[in-house]
Amino acid sequence: MMLLKRIFLLVTILFLANRCQAQLSLPLFDSRFNMLVYEHVDKMPLFPGGDMALAKFLSKIRYPKEQLDYHGKLHLSFIVDAEGNVLDKCIHNKKAADYTLLDKEGIMLLNRMPKWIPGQLNGKNVAVRVLIPMKICLQVD
Known about the structure:
The chain is built from three helices and seven strands. By secondary structure, the protein is an alpha+beta fold. Strands 1, 2, 3, 4, 5, 6 and 7 form a seven-stranded mixed sheet that branches.
């Protein structure tokens, strides 16, 4: 068994940039959940405890032994509904049949995610799609 000496994880949370965008998107109706889902709103959903707490949570991802020398991005995608529930957890632009072991670990991490503070549009809680790209840089010495 290989001894894992160092693991570097750089979490890039690009949804922060979404908060700065002035232009709001039109919602898409998601028939699976019977709700309108936005991509950009006045107030984006917030992880409990803020961005630093989210980074700490994401750093708890488990790395498959088979992918210890992996370098790349993991694009986590999900919906935060109007009550703060995390729904439709997936890897952005990837079919489930094509998920790698690391992708599957990312989904398991999303399954452990607590409720969020919902996003708001015009003072009303709405469902928002969140995309979190994670830059993964694992090295085994």
